[in-house]
Amino acid sequence: MPALYAGKRVGKPLMRGHTYNAMFNGKLVWPLDKDTVVSIRITDDKGNALPKSLAVNGTLKLGAKATYADGHVGDLLTTKDVTFTSRDTSTATVSGNTLTWRHGGTILVTATVNGFTSAAASIASAYAPESIKVTDDSGQPVDAVTLRVGETKHFNVRILPTEASQEFTANTGNQTIATITKE
Question: What sign has the CA pseudo-torsion 68, 73, 75, 77?
Answer without folding.
Answer: positive
